[in-house]
Amino acid sequence: MRLAIEALARHSVERPRDIAIVDAEGNALSWHELAARVDTLRYVVLEHTAPQARVAVSVTSGWRFWVSVLATSSAGRMPCLLPCPLPGMIHDRIRRELGPDTLIVDDQFLADVTDLRSSTNHGPNSTLSAISTRDVPTDPLGAILLSSGTTGRSRFVVRSSDVIDRITSILIEEGLSARGDHVASFLPMAHAYGFEHAFLAPLVVGARVHALGRFSREKAASAIESGATTLPLVPITAQALAEDEYTYDMNRVRGTLRCVITAGTPLPAIVRTSFERRFGQQIIDLYGASELGTIWLDRGKGGRTVRGVEIRLLERGDREGEIAVRSECMLTGTIGSNGEFEPPTEDGFFATGDLGARGQNGTFRVTGRTKLVFDVGGLKVNPIEVEQALETHPAIARARIRPISMGSALQRVAADIELRSGHFEPTILELRTFLTPLVASHTIPRSIRVVDQLPKTESGKLLRDTPISGESIAPVTRRPKGLEERSTREQYTKGLFDETARGYDNSSGAAFMRSGRWYRRRMLIKSGLKPGAAHLDVGSGTGLCAALAQEIVGPTGRVVALDPSTGMLEVARRRGVRETIEGRAESLPFPDASFDIVSMSYMLRHIEDLMLAFREARRVLRPNGRIVIFEVTRPTTFGIRHAFDFSMYWVVPSVGVVASGRPSTFPMMQYWADTIVDAARPERIVEALDRSGFIGTRHLLELGVFSCYRGTAPIA
């Protein structure tokens, strides 16, 4: 970070009125104005923090980011670069992992503590004495980045000041940033790619950066026409520019455009070809990681490592395997979930989780992800290989390959695809024929679904575990009359279950001949619940399932009963359930990977969206953890179905009233019957589990009405 701080001091003296940074709203700061605002915020940071403190920076990309990071670093504190706005889950991790006294600098903080817009502490020809000579630590501390999670769980990555300076120097040596550049950037600066290419390297060389915000073809075309020399892109935005219909003055563009970079995901050959044909400018495809900085650059002939990088290919031999890297720009360490600093491995190599291949000429390329690979009939499927093959089809803009369960342990390949503008949907037969000469037969998708847009990050990375925008699966086909509105329904059911809580076990137990206890116990054990395990019972009600789980896990295990009804939870506590929490399935108040088993007992009809609830369950499950769901399923055979309906509407509620001694049990049991009659069929529940990321999903039916659904959280 010293290079950046010294560069700011130098530029503010040598070229105070030159524009340094322009934000998405068009606000421009000169080097002098930037330095003055850094100086102002620096003293605010000093006032609010202890020496060597960590400062969480979650501000809009642009001048606010530059000012916040430079002020924090020059104050001898360590900036932690976080998304803006700050996600709730990350906010919760700040105090736990970075420390309880961590200062959070966001846009509101900047607005509250000082008017940075009008800071003019120095004359136009003055030196930046406040930063260059006054109280500056000999060694700035560096920075903390939040990794994207593609190399494992998202984590706080610590880079020392020296490492940051080496990364910056390499980018400049490779010609990716030069004085006189006009950088047009859509990159979020809190991301490692944006931090390096829209902040560090341009600042050190004295380039001008225009932070354009969210990508649009119109803004990109305007920036290119206005004389942008450097475009840091991601493959999806490079593709958009290659395919748009904007008419450029190519003589002018080719005279100014100097450097085009992509990163984030491997650049498809078809995108490189179409972009370079249109703009006459070579694309540099950068491969790197938050933990390692830049690893190699591919200028069209394979990736060549940058200075100070050594690569090993693990497990599969010298030519192909998982990419492990040792680098001069290696992370200093990570911050664990308990807040403790964890140094890198002893041998200095970092396993990236990417699969790679070494070419005959000593270059490298990424071929897939180790943690994305799945089995089909005992054979491996690498989703990235199939996606790249699909994306060479003239009608397909983007593809996502995923496994789908066919029951038991059998999986098949499915694809979601985005179409290129103006193209019609190809048939499944056409696509299978197209793929046959390109990929192995077992990797060809059995089903293909066309979607409007695949979920992606702002930097263009495919979100593999995120459902398609707007998709959901309702647990029922319709809601009871008068309870169509969610708020009305939730208020009604909460009151209903609070009122009937004390007699609930007697009524439901009598209705089903006391079968619930032994059935749940058997299925929990079959699902893998054992002594010492951690179990979450969602929609726990009176805690029957939680109490059974507590007996199984023993004193060394953990069982949590979660339910929105305080009355039900009170009964669960009297039953002996040690840990009860009021909450809902769609928003579980637990950290990621907290439990070995998540159960849901006869409660699916009371939630709003199966996929939302199942995604939450998958989030809190540890790798290889299990979800087990108990439900009552309406028979499909005509005569049996009518007998079942009569029993559920009249016999069961009547028995329930007698057993519980509470007349309020009758409407509760009839509401239960309504939701069973209109419940989603088992195949829709299995589909929701599949699409929420569970593998090995299955549905077991006993006695014609008792359903048990199971699924496993993937290892990664």
**CA distance, first residue to last residue:** 34 Å
Biggest sheet strand order reads 5-3-4-6-7-17-18
Structural class: alpha/beta
Classify the oligomer. single chain
Characterize the largest beta sheet: strand count, sense, and whether it forms a barrel.
Answer: 7 strands, mixed
Helices, by number, come to: 22
Rg estimate, integer Å: 29 Å
The assigned CATH architecture of one domain is: 3-Layer(aba) Sandwich
What is the percent of helical residues? Answer: 25-40%
The tally of beta strands, per DSSP, is 32
* Fourth-level CATH superfamily of one domain: Vaccinia Virus protein VP39
Write down the CATH class of one domain: Alpha Beta
Which blocks of ≥5 consecutive residues have pLDDT under 50? 117-138, 406-410
* Shape call: globular
The fraction of residues in strands falls at 15-25%
- In round numbers, the mean pLDDT is 82
The CATH topology label of one domain is: Rossmann fold
